[in-house]
Structure formats: structure tokens, C-alpha cells
Amino acid sequence: MIYILTACLVLVFLLFFTSYLLYRGVFYYPQKKHVDPYQIPDDMLYAPYKNAMLHLLHEMEQTPYEEVSIRSQDGLSLCGRLYLFRPDAPLMLFFHGYHGTFLWDGLGSFRFCRKNHINLLVVDERSHGKSADQIITFGIRECKDVKCWADYAAKRFPEKSLILSGVSMGSASVMMASVLSLPSSVKALICDCGYTAPAEIIKETIRSFHLPVSFCYALLHFGARIFGHFNLNESTALSAVKQTKLPILFIHGDHDSIVPPKMCDELYDACASRKKKLIITGSQHAVNAMADFDSYEREIMNFLKESGIKI
């Protein structure tokens, strides 16, 4: 009997320890692990656009901006950059992706906004860049940060129309935030390669590594609850778009290997508000603006005008 009890205790310890290791690997993102935005990797996502990205990154750094910061609902310092291109223009708020930076994910938005004289606020998501914290929650807490940034922008620029835009996790966070009590000046959402739900994108990633999905996800879900104190099922982009009243432009690459294009179709089909969809042919994850800027620009401009936003 003692051997059985010992074996059970060892098994419980191993499962608990494995859950902790998975939690640290997926959700924990300390400063020392942050990417260097000037070291663009030569992988399948960025290699075709590396030179163009470096050129835009240099321009983004050289263009005058104001460093801004706010407090999140749970007391964290959140930081960003404000680019003011024209006093009477709308303001786009941009949110980057998981383990990303606005100096990569936001290059398309920067190019678009500068060219069309739309003001731009790019932010460091919590746990990224200059913003505080070390835990990434795939949109669960980040969506509340989106609301805080929208509240800040509405208070500082009460006369401006606000556009919420995001890539990947930033896109999912924007969608989740669309059913929160956002300021009335928020007029439209631009959601680029967003996923349907935190749980679903995590399962998709586990699947891509050919690991047992149910078992690994159960350990990750447990780790998030016990060590991170958040529930991966608390909010989803899919449930949010079913309720939102804000118009949404969905953008996705048909070769996206990180967030499957089928997720874009699910979100578009479920969306209860006015909606449009742009599929970029041949594009990978989070590089749609780099892959086909002309289509990206044209569709966003048309969408904003149809949403009643004066450019």
C-alpha cells in the first residue's frame, strides 16, 4: 500500500512540476528573453521582407514621437509611442503580437498611417518592451489594457475618432475588448491574423509540435490558473465578435502557418456587426502589410471611409 501511495505522490509531483515548466515556457516572458527588434530573424516569416523591414524600422525610429505611459486596471505601467501626423486626423491605436514588438508588427501600420496622415499610437503590450509584468495571457488581461489605452486616447483627444488595430495576439485582444465599455469615439476595428480564442491557438500550437493536445493543454490550463492566476477560458475573440456593434475589418494571409486562415473565416462568419474580409494571397503570419501593401492600404482606407471616419 505504501508503494502505491508513494507512486501516486511521485506522479502528482511530476505532473505539477511539468505543468509549472510548461507554464514558464509559454506564459512567462521576463526582460532577458525579449527580442532585439534590430535583429530580424532569417526565418520563413521575415526573411523575404527583412531589408524592407529594416528600412521602415529606421524611419520609424527617426520620425518624431512622444513617449507616453498609462496605468493598467491592475496597476501596471504600460508604455507606448505617439506619432502625430496631422492635428485634425483620426488616431489609430496599434497592439502587437505574442513575443512581438511594435517595431516589427507595427511597421505596416506606421507606413499606412504616415502615408495617409493618420495619427498613430503604438503600444508595448504588458510584459513586452518597456511595459511592466512578466506574464502573457493571450488576450485575457491584454484586452483590459486595450480599454485602458482607448480611455486614455479618448480623454486626451476627445475630438478624434479612434481606430483599434492589432496583429495576432494584439488582434485577438482588440476583438475581446470590443465588448467592454469602450469610449464612444472608438469607431472601428482592424484585426490582422487574430485567433478565435486563447485555448484554441494554444491547442493549435501544441498540435503543430505533434504533442498530445488534450494532455498538454490540460497541464497548461492548470499552470495558468495556479501559477499565473488567470483563466484561459475567461474571454474569447469568437464570443466577442458575436456581440460587438463595432465594424471590423478582418485581414489574414492564406499561407499563415501560426494562426490558421480557418480562424479568420470563423470570426468573420460569427461577427454580428458590419464586417469586411481581406485575404492576402501567399502571405505568412503577421506580415500581410509587407506582403501586399497596396491591397492592405486600399482595403483599410475603404473600410474606414465606409465606417464614417473622415481621413
Please characterize this protein's 3D structure.
This protein is an alpha/beta fold and 311 residues long. The protein has twelve helices and eight strands. The protein has an eight-stranded mixed beta sheet, sandwiched between helices. α6 links the parallel β5 and β6. It is globular, with a radius of gyration of 20 Å. The model has no long low-confidence stretch (mean pLDDT 96).
Task: Annotate the secondary structure layout.
Layout lengths: L1 H25 L23 H13 L3 E6 L5 E7 L7 E5 L6 H4 L1 H10 L2 E5 L18 H15 L5 E6 L1 H9 L8 E7 L5 H11 L4 H16 L8 H5 L6 E6 L7 H10 L4 E6 L7 H4 L1 H14 L5
Parallel strand pairs: 3-4, 3-5, 5-6, 6-7, 7-8
Antiparallel strand pairs: 1-2, 2-4
Total beta-strand segments: 8
Q: β content, as a range?
A: 15-25%
Taking all Cα atoms into account, the compactness measure Rg is 20 Å
Coarse structural class: alpha/beta
Quaternary: single chain
Shape, per Cα inertia axes: globular
Distance between the termini: 75 Å
Which runs of at least 5 residues are low in confidence (pLDDT < 50)?
A: none
Mean pLDDT: 96
Number of helices: 12
Q: In percent, how helical is the residue content?
A: 40-55%
Along the chain, the helix and strand elements come as: HHEEEHHEHEHEHHHEHEHH
Biggest pleated sheet:
8 strands, mixed
Lateral arrangement of strands in the main beta sheet: 1-2-4-3-5-6-7-8
